[in-house]
Write a sequence for this structure.
């Protein structure tokens, strides 16, 4: 599932790709499987200014919820699927029809429960996540 070192945060300096939080840091993934469990996915674009603001909500929330049964993901591209050096990340952008950034998806057993476009507070996102459990 993983390929690469662990990072404390994902930034615009990291390679395009898919990252998951393993409880100790962010790890680059070679594949994804959202079919079972609760997954929260942040679609991030390197040239998205709103994403840089959202990072201040996202990373503390993930750290705060690291002991939960939720898997957190970041799908990172330069600019959506059109400018993405990761074929897998580009494919996931297309699969979920993500056309705004940041976009956060909450999935349960492979089905979209909530799609949030734009910046959202950590407090509000946590409430949405907890309502899915």
């Amino acid at each position: 599932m993983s390929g690469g070192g662990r990072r404390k945060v994902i930034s615009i300096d990291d390679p395009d790709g898919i990252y998951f939080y393993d409880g100790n840091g962010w790890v680059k993934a070679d594949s994804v499987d959202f079919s079972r469990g609760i997954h929260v996915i942040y679609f991030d674009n390197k040239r998205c200014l709103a994403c840089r603001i959202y990072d201040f909500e996202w990373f503390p929330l993930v750290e705060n919820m690291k002991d939960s049964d939720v898997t957190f993901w970041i799908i990172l591209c330069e600019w959506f699927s059109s400018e993405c050096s990761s074929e897998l990340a580009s494919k996931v952008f297309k699969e979920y029809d993500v056309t705004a950034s940041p976009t956060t998806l909450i999935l349960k057993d492979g089905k979209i429960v909530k799609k949030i476009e734009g910046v959202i507070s950590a407090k509000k996102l946590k409430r949405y996540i907890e309502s899915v459990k």
